[in-house]
Amino acid sequence: MDSLGGRIFATICLLATMVGILALIVLLADVLKSGWTWLSIDFITGLPSILPEEAGIYPALIGSIYLMILTAFFTLPIGVGTAIYLEEYAKDGKLKRIIETNISNLAGVPSIVYGLLGLALFVRALQMGSSLIAGALTLTLLILPIVIVSSQEALKSVPNSLRRASYGLGATKWETIRNVVLPKALPGIMTGTILSLSRAVGETAPLIMIGAATSMFTTPDGLFSQFSALPLQIYGWIQEPVEAFQNEIAAAGIILLLALLLTMNSIAVLIRNRYER
């Protein structure tokens, strides 16, 4: 039986857990109460309007989906490739430690700093303007350190005995990585990548810094098109003087954004469960 100190410690840990859960419940209840009645097919497929009853979110929803796809396209090969090099090819030494330390530090840099970097590099230096590809590349910079670190941890979790067994059967290093290491590390890599994308799709500050529109009446038709995104549209509605935009319409947009995030998180869980069998 646990001692009194152990029971007190367990109770404190339970209370700490409940604080986060209760905060989430209160937040969800408030958002659902305010925005649920405004959710409809017309709202999801409609265009923004100056009238609350005619407001829609379709261009921002499509913009967020395009952003997510492009960000995944850029992030996955660069992040996983970097992690494979650092874990499987790079020799232990001072240079490797410096690189890993800097990548870990970059994971904690505020998102608005990446927005400033995207503004200077993609928008101004490379003349991309406030385009869809500039937004995707800025979000790629934002989540790249997280994807690299999570992929490294997934690769480290593969037992070295499997690598040695593969080498013992005559496989080369590349064959061992392709046929043994990557399949075993795939659940961790995909989970970390999808959760990172979930963070990216909810970011507002970097997109505001590169000049993305808070409201658009058309969907992006190319990589260099102007775009909006769900967080930006919600931010724009909160700035409106009409109370219905600030409360109900913005809450409906938040519900849609949460649904998108929960869908991505569910996909991450399904992928992890499927490949862990």
Which shape, going by the Cα principal axes? Answer: globular
Radius of gyration: 22 Å
State the distance separating the first and last CA atoms: 35 Å
Mean pLDDT across all amino acids: 89
Counting DSSP E segments of at least 2 residues, the number of strands comes to 0
Approximate strand percentage: under 5%
Low-confidence stretches: none
Helicity range of the residues? Answer: over 70%
How many H/I helices? 11
Order of helices and strands: HHHHHHHHHHH
Structural class: mainly alpha
Largest sheet: none
Secondary structure layout:
Elements: H1 4-35, H2 41-45, H3 58-89, H4 94-106, H5 111-125, H6 132-156, H7 160-168, H8 173-201, H9 205-209, H10 230-238, H11 243-276
How would you describe the overall organization of this protein?
With 277 residues, this protein is an all-alpha fold. It has 11 helices and no strands. Helix 1 crosses helix 11 (243-276), helix 3 runs antiparallel to helix 8 (173-201) and helix 5 crosses helix 6. The protein is globular. The chain starts with a helix and ends with a helix. The mean pLDDT is 89.
Salient structural properties:
277 residues; mainly alpha; 0% strand; globular
Gist of the model:
The chain is mainly alpha-helical and 277 residues long. It has helices at 4-35, 41-45, 58-89, 94-106, 111-125, 132-156, 160-168, 173-201, 205-209, 230-238, 243-276. 75% of the residues lie in helices and 0% in strands.
